[in-house]
Amino acid sequence: MNSSHYLIDSGRRNRRFLTQTEQQEEQESLSHIEGDMLQVISLEGKINAQLEPKLSVEDLKKLYKTMVLTRVLDTKCMNMQRQGRIGFYVPCAGQEAAQIGSAFAATAEDWIVPTYRDQGVALIRGLDLRKLIAHLMGNSSDSMMGKQMPNHWGFSEIHFMSVASPIAAQLPVATGIAMSMKLKKKDTIVLAYHGDGATSEGDFHAAYNFAGVYKAPVIFICENNGWAISVPVARQTAAATLAIKAEAYGFDGVRVDGNDILAVYKATKLAIDRARSGGGPTMIECLTYRMGPHSTSDDPTKYRTKEEIEFWKKRDPIERFKNYLELRGVWNQDFENKARTVVDEEINRAIEEEEKIPPPETSSIFKDVYAEEPASLREQEKEELSYESSSKE
Ligand SMILES: Cc1ncc(C[n+]2csc(CCOP(=O)(O)OP(=O)(O)O)c2C)c(N)n1
Ligand SMILES: [Mg+2]
Questions:
Q1: Cα 173 to Cα 338: distance, rounded to the nearest angstrom
Q2: Angle at 124 between CA 204 and CA 212, to 5 degrees
Q3: How many domains does the chain have?
Q4: CB neighbours of 330 closer than 8 A, spacing ≥ 6?
């Protein structure tokens, strides 16, 4: 299989999400759905009016601005790493629609269990930019106090769990949170993010199995970006799609054009409504693409072709949404210029402010590790403090 074209692989059409009326309407507009993906905006820019979510102009603008903010921030962070101003970075360019469209369907009370690549999710939930940058710098404003790997953030103020590095390790946790919400009869749900590579991990299967058996209110957002570092999806699985894996656990898996923000939003909203009303989990496979390297320590030219990059450049999620907004009379060049100016200023100001913040005190390495500090650690802390004061003399 040519990995750059997996987007249009044949598979089963996922229509079970639609109401009966929508199913009938959809039958009349099949030409708008490419392959077996849910699509609202076709590659040619045609709109599927039956599936189009009814969002306000204000919401549409917010989605677009957040996509731009995420992309511009991403480029700046890559540059800052190359300039030695931050140590390491995991970029998300290309995946903005999958991240922002899905997270926008959740409420502030719902919980997000993210991966290291989900900056867009945090930003659409209103994260203060400075918190994100502080973390990348590992300064004393970082909620992790420089103790975590970069991109392994956590922001309780936006209900955004801290990131686990072992692939798929977050998924049983996500199912567990959702099970507890159900037991406590809460009205909240969990959005759990993972990549294509994660579907080969044991934790993926354990999490999906428990979610299915206990009808946990969890929605798995699989960002199928075609690659797990240098391993293409074709080498990850012999299954026709990743979405069909959900069926083995007794719940629906839906394939969505992950570069079509409105399709991602629509699918996630339906899944959330279902989970909230006791209908259990759903997996949403978002077909998208990682436009940049896996991380600042990776060189994708070693394993990807120029043709593949070009193929996906033409499917840039920001361009796709911009074309839609223009058709709807929401976008024009003036709006674009203003949005970019605001975004640039916001990011530059946040970086400038965070670069003034000093690194954490050495003694902070002893904090927030145990609920009750064990004697051995107290001993080490005392030793470190006396070393610090003697070296100052
Ligand atoms: C259990 C485990 N194995 C290997 C790794 C090394 N590793 C880090 S990221 C990654 C790729 C994951 O790919 P995918 O799930 O598709 O997510 P993506 O990076 O594409 O967003 C791997 C193999 C790891 N972190 N954990
Ligand atoms: Mg991947």
A1: 41
A2: 25
A3: 2
A4: 57, 60, 61, 64
Please indicate, yes or no, whether residues 237 and 343 belong to a single structural domain of this protein: yes
Distance CA 226, CA 193 (A): 15
- pTM: predicted TM-score of the whole model, two decimal places: 0.91
Q: For residue 366, how many C-alpha atoms fall within 13 Å in the half-sphere facing its CB?
A: 17
306 plus 383 within the same structural domain: no
Residues designated as active site: 290, 294, 303
φ and ψ at 98, to 5 degrees? -65, -40
Instruction: Please report which ligand is nearest the Cα atom of 90.
Output: 1
Closest ligand to C-alpha of residue 195 is 1
Q: Tell whether ligand 1 has an atom less than 6 A from the beta carbon of residue 227.
A: yes
The string of pLDDT tens digits covering residues 169-214 is: 999 999 999 999 999 999 999 999 999 999 999 999 999 999 999 9
378 and 304 part of one domain = no
Distances (CA, A) of 74 to 16, 87, 92, 304: 36, 14, 7, 21
pLDDT digits (tens, 9 = 90+) for 244-264: 999 999 999 999 999 999 999
